[in-house]
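Notes to self after the Tuesday call (sharing in case useful).
The group wants a holo model before anyone commits to mutagenesis around the pocket. I volunteered. Ligand is S-adenosylmethionine. Logging inputs and output together so the record is complete.
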Amino acid sequence: MFSSQGPSLRELAVQALSSVERGYDLLAPKFDHTPFRTPDGVLDATADALRPLGPFGRGLDVCCGTGAGMRTLAAVCQGRIAGVDFSSGMLAQAREAHPDAELVRADVRDLSFGAEFDLAVTFGALGHLLPSERPAVFAGVHRALRPGGLFAFPIGGPPPVTSVLYWALLGFDAVMRVRNAVWRPPFVMYYRTCPLGAVRDDLATAGFDVTTVPLTALGRRPDGAPRFRLVLARKPA
Ligand SMILES: C[S@@+](CC[C@H](N)C(=O)[O-])C[C@H]1O[C@@H](n2cnc3c(N)ncnc32)[C@H](O)[C@@H]1O
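Result:
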């Protein structure tokens, strides 16, 4: 499935019936050959939008997986970069890709970093958090940043109800809800639980000043709206 180097349908099914942590442990060696790894275009557009706001000192990739977002951090940070994830399999891959980085195994719902980073990013992971879990994650990232530090991540605009994507995401989330109602352990991954408005409110509650900029390099929808915006959540200086 996906490519000859990617996981087979059977492997994906086994992973989907596991917990999030175990599922990613199993997927890790083939993760970079799946569409779940954030594409380089998104990473580069994020780096381009962050560059004028930097340079930054130390950077942290939250839910780093195999280390895709650390490519963005490396482009804009002058200090040592770090990644945090709870899957030891994903961290092992990240360690190969970024041997000089600090890699920490932890659950991002309970981060214990002090104020040591100037920039934090996250890619492709918010859907793994229930809305009720976001405040604790954002509070942990807030604590991890120095005063004046920035938490940045791209977020897709809602697809129009007339689009195939709208119905595909709705269908995916419905299947996951059924799966999680009948099977343990749960695999939390929902596409429609982190709209910009709710995420913005949770960031503000955690103490961030929040703005967004369009990532125009990633295209516009037929109605002219940007497909992606970059959320810029600043910890007050
Ligand atoms: C879709 S992958 C994204 C990986 C990478 N950021 C990227 O964009 O390619 C999601 C990652 O989030 C991690 N993750 C999910 N929930 C987590 C949690 N509560 N604590 C730590 N890591 C978590 C998973 O282990 C996985 O590596």
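Two things stood out.
Strands lie at 59-62, 81-85, 102-105, 117-122, 145-156, 209-214, 228-234.
The two ends are 47 Å apart (CA to CA).
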